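Re: How this chain folds, sequence and tokenised backbone to follow
How to read it: Take the token row as a discrete description of the fold.
Start of record: The labelled sequence and token lines come straight after this line.
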Amino acid sequence: ADSSDADVELPTIRHQPEGLEQLLAQTKFTKMELQSLYRGFKNECPSGLVDEETFTLIYSRFFPQGDASSYAHFLFDAFDADRNGALCFQDFAVGLSVLLRGTEQQKLKWTFDLYDVNKDGYITKEDMLEIMKSIYAMMGRSTESALGASMPAQHVELFFQKMDRNRDGVVTFEEFLATCQE
């Protein structure tokens, strides 16, 4: 019985992501880092896939004083590169690699894509207002009441004053990149 138990435990201890060599090439993580990330990912998501509901529950733990569900939705969409409604370890590792170790331009592109809510290639005031409202909700009611309900809209106006260089009502990636790099 002991030897069969050992056989059963081995896969749960080893935690080797599928396509490790491919992930090594796609990310800026070492083999040990990928294995450690995978171990944590599998502990939270034993099936190997994370749906949006599970992602939101996990993410919301970091913001117990507010409602992180709306912002978690935007983050989930940003990590779900293949748009299949579930995050696999590869989606997670590639996104995390960009955020932690990507070039400045890669990080800014990832952020731009997060803010481009409807994925049309532009950040509109509507996109940005949705993001701002979700950030305020995530930070909690005390932040919202202390700063006022109009603060998300004021932040959007400031964002567009700085970013919308040609004043056409939308922010392109080129405008976003140039302004951020200044």
About this structure: The longest strand covers residues 49-51.
